[in-house]
Amino acid sequence: MKNKIMSSKKLISYLILGLCLFSCKKDEIEIIGETEEFTITSSIINDDYPLFVYFPSNYDPSAPNQLIIGLDGEFRFEEVADVISEKSENGSIPPCIFVAIGNSDERNRDYTPTKFQHGEGGAENYYHFIKNELIPELESRYNIDTSNTKTLIGNSFGGLFTHYTMFQDKVDNPFNKFVSTGCSFWFDSGVIFEYEENYNVNNTDLDVIFFSGMGSLEGGVNLASVEEMEVRLRNRSYSNLNISTVIINEHGHSGAATIGFKKGLDYVFSN
Amino acid sequence: MYFQIKKTLLIFTLFITSIAYAQDTTNKKTIDLGLNLAGDETIFYGAYGKFSIPLSQKKHHFITGGSLTAYCDFKGESNEGAVLKDDIDMRIIPSIFLGYSFNFKKIKLNFEIPIGASFAITKGTLVNERIGFERDFSNKEIFLSYGVAVNPKYKLNNKNYIGLYAFLPLIEDRAQSGYQFGIGWTKKIK
After folding, report:
1. What's the CATH code of the domain at A176?
2. In degrees rounded to 5, what are phi and psi of residue A28?
3. Would you say residue B78 has pLDDT above 90?
4. How confident is the model at residue B27 (pLDDT cuts 50, 70, 90)?
5. Residue B81 and residue A189: Cβ atoms within 8 Å?
6. Structural domain of A113
7. Of A9, A24, A253, which is closest to B2 when you measure between CB atoms?
8. Number of domains in chain B
9. What's the Rg (C-alpha) of chain A?
10. How confident is the model at residue B8 (pLDDT cuts 50, 70, 90)?
11. How many domains does chain A have?
12. Residues near A92 by Cβ (< 8 Å), separated by ≥ 6?
């Protein structure tokens, strides 16, 4: 009898443990809207880029839509589309279209501004590809607002490229909204700060809406650098700069990205 | 909310199971000491200690106990031109565990479910000589840490074992408490 009671207790314990450990899954969000894919060939870089396109429920083919461009398309398309889908449903984002650029295998070449370690310094070419080849192609296919008010969103090296793009000449920069998470400030001993300084030498204003998110567990170089970048930009006294820097508590490099994308899109479309 | 319920159930089950199976035993208590590699996105280096108590006198038996793990990132993402000064980036993880020990002639194989806290401490100063700035940073956070561990050991003699240790975290963000792979020494103490 005693053995039977012990066996029952064991069985119940195993069942509860099993349920605890393996029964719970993270909530998943279904994106609402249409998607499509096609490939563009860049003559500037001499490479092909798959494009992942998302039309949220508020996309309006009869009127100009905001264009949001995301990097690391193969990894990030679905999670950013999830965020946009939710925002589209609750009315917190204007009519828009989201395009994530693939060929993420070449991110070390395309997203880095200089040659350093495994970075190949192709950011200048990549910027020209986006500005002169990709955006004109998208504007010819879809109803997109053609003014320089587009949004760029990136994580890690993608965040580095987002900063790099923000510090390009404003006259013909197609973007005025930037969302960066987990920027690789460590890259080439903080070379992105030189781009910020060079921009300041040649400009008196930075007319953009800029969100920068960093996970609290991303290490000392990035924690210190994200704060340094905010202080520097605020001290420039650019009259039309809107900036928000957020430390995303309890998260490391990967975990902070999705939260940062959501907070970033909230910020850039509320200003 | 879902994860809070999951965590509460797990703690409750470990507690009840420990009480249910605790009894006088002729199996030995053991102490483990070892070195480990840990982390998820970054590799940390550290050490661990563990105290195990057998919960029955069967050949294969339940065990419980406590452990303390600490690991550090000694370099961070600093590089020439941007270095960290007086910096710490570490996790300190005290845990209790419930496990099951398979005992064969030369091999002991332990499966454990540790649950505890992860103290994340990051502080120091970034000195960027290339750009020309210094900036302090500091972050301290505490997280729940839990997962499953496997600990195979080889018997050297009646009192000593050497073994490997692997911990798979089941928390959502593994930067809070990461994977652990260790090599260690086990001594029977009583």
Report:
1. 3.40.50.1820
2. -110, 140
3. no
4. confident
5. yes
6. 28-268
7. A24
8. 1
9. 22
10. low
11. 1
12. A266, A269, A270
